[in-house]
Amino acid sequence: MTGTAHARKIAFATFVRRALDDARATRAWSGTEVSRRTGVSRQTINRWVRGDWASDPEAERVVAFCEGLGLNPAAAFGALGWDRTTPPRSAPTPPPMDPDVEALLRRLVDPNVSDAEKFHIRETIRYLAYRPTLPVDGRRRGRKAG
Fold first, then answer.
1. What is the pTM of this model?
2. Cα distance between residue 10 and residue 59, in whole Å
3. Which has the closest alpha carbon to 15: 71, 91, 89, 64?
């Protein structure tokens, strides 16, 4: 392996590691959650972090990883030493966030909040996020049986 190839691997591994660290710190995302939101497998992300790849990562996967984390793919391309840039995609405006959800997110990144409380918040959010949705039967609402 040439010195340039090795330097590119280190630069890209550093970029990916920082992106993962930021996702964990600011969004409380696990590696599994990053994989789910970016569409890039955990195995691929782990290979990138280790610099364990024989040929360059696929541009589409790099773009998907960056966009899933809200990063500009040009930064990843720069770490890889690629001359190409991608035109920024026009991202849809996210819907306004519920104030209660914003408050929970602030508590998750607040260093004054205990780890136990952060754990409880995450567990509650996971439960609510993945529980089955009950069907809504509008005809029965507000009526008494009988």
1. 0.55
2. 17
3. 71
